[in-house]
Design a protein that fits this description.
8 helices; 42% helix; 236 residues; elongated; alpha/beta
Length: 236
């Protein structure tokens, strides 16, 4: 099926040029010039992925993401100004799946979109009645339970809601408890392909995962940081 991409940006030149580029690659597009008008449409008729500019009038991209995350796990890519490192980190911490700094290569944006859509497909069960591939095995590590086929996570029986990127990072760590995974390995698991993301991106996702688990268990410490080496999952 053809994927639908929603673009939310107050710069009409970007809306037009990116929309044309995406349509040339076979995507369907919907465009919105501000966050306020986009929010209801994204919730009522969700696309497959959305791209938000951070700095917009009426409702900026961060507020749009915050309100969207109350109701939806729709994959989101942020467009940020080149020097807005704080906004990038905050966006990832709030649950964005990726970000790209302006000015950006449309080729890179399309590559990131395709990578996230593939990751989303990996975490969704097939609806075909025949010739279905075997569902991924559930992962149970101490109080953690992960069901990749249904994109469900619980800790001590309590549900924890993760984005696609967060799920894939945690799954990579939980598959081999006690084994250290460096940032490059986690990047490969979450992003695949030859797409560059910097260390801060992985660190921000890890912080967000920890924060979500600590909302159901303030003592959660199963994801350990080994400075200079990476991260590991401990089921003790």
């Amino acid at each position: 099926m053809t994927a639908t991409i929603a673009l939310v940006d107050d710069d009409r030149n970007i809306l037009t040029s990116v929309s044309i580029a995406l349509q040339a690659e076979g995507f369907l597009t919907r465009v919105y010039s501000d966050g306020e008008s986009a929010l209801k449409a994204l919730v009522d008729n969700p696309p497959d992925l959305a791209i938000f500019d951070i700095k917009m009038p009426r409702m900026d991209g961060l507020e749009l993401l915050r309100r969207l995350r109350e109701k939806s796990l729709l994959p989101v890519i942020f467009l940020t100004s080149k020097d807005d490192e704080l906004d990038e980190a905050l966006g990832l911490a709030m649950g964005a799946d990726d970000y790209i700094a302006k000015p950006f290569s449309q080729r890179l944006l399309i590559a990131r979109i395709r990578a996230i859509l593939r990751r989303t497909e990996l975490t969704q069960p097939s609806t075909a009645d025949d010739a279905q591939p075997a569902a991924p095995d559930k992962i149970v590590r101490g109080r953690l339970a992960m069901d990749p086929a249904r994109h469900k996570v619980t800790w001590g029986g309590q549900p924890v809601t993760l984005t696609v990127t967060e799920f894939l990072i945690l799954e990579t760590l939980a598959q081999r408890p006690g084994i250290v995974k460096n940032r490059n390995q986690l990047m490969d698991a979450a992003y695949q392909d030859d797409i560059y993301v910097d260390d801060r991106t992985i660190d921000s996702h890890i912080k967000r995962v920890r924060r979500k688990f600590r909302q159901v268990d303030p003592e959660f410490d199963a994801i350990e940081t080994l400075y200079g080496a990476g991260y590991r999952f401990s089921e003790e």
